[in-house]
Design goal:
This protein is an alpha/beta fold. The protein contains eight helices and six strands; from the N terminus they run βαβαβαβαβαβααα. Strands 3-2-1-4-5-6 form a six-stranded parallel beta sheet, sandwiched between helices. Helix 2 links the parallel strand 2 and strand 3. It is globular. The termini are far apart. The model has no long low-confidence stretch (mean pLDDT 94).
């Protein structure tokens, strides 16, 4: 996707909007040391004034809308979902399915499938300082990052498989039918 492979890529996929709180990710990213070794990859689009802020940063790529999200996920080393509100967060599940460690807010259904220090980590909403510390930990501890990524992949492969989903739907339908 045009980012040098020696860079550590911190990424996000989704709308660039206030409720997704992507501005907080930008703030946290700017607090990180060794900027020359880092790249912020934002896969999505949003209002012109917000997009302009990301484009000011030389080590940031904002893609706009893309059809090939998987190519961009493969370029990432760390995935961040800074949302203030969320339902399931398909973007987070997609990132986990590719083996990415995730850093997320404890909102929506993410708090049920992200398990601290097993397949991802949490940070408090609206805390760019804590988010920067969590990103720094992942950058500085590649073994930890790799462990979280492997477990993230296993979580999605097991908990969100088609077979498991179909069986759950069958159970719910049977329960409804027979009650």
């Amino acid at each position: 996707v045009g980012i040098k492979s020696e860079k550590t890529v911190i990424g996000y996929v989704g709308r660039v909007s206030k409720e997704k709180n992507v501005q907080l990710l930008l703030e946290a990213f700017q607090k990180l040391e060794q900027q020359e070794n880092l790249h912020l990859l934002i896969v999505g689009d949003g209002p012109k004034e917000m997009v302009k802020e990301f484009k000011k940063l030389k080590n940031c790529t904002l893609t706009g809308f893309v059809n090939n999200v998987q190519d961009y996920l493969r370029a990432m080393d760390i995935f961040v979902m800074p949302s203030l509100t969320e339902t399931t967060s398909l973007a987070t599940l997609e990132a986990m399915s590719t083996g990415l460690p995730v850093i997320v807010t404890k909102v929506g259904y993410m708090k049920n499938y992200v398990i601290k220090d097993h397949n991802g980590i949490f940070f408090p909403k609206n805390s760019s300082n804590v988010l920067a510390l969590k990103i720094k930990k992942m950058i500085n501890e590649p073994e930890y990052r790799e462990k979280l990524g492997k477990n993230a992949r296993k979580t999605v492969a097991y908990s969100f498989s088609w077979e498991r989903s179909i069986n759950k739907i069958k159970r719910l339908l049977l329960k409804q039918y027979y009650s």
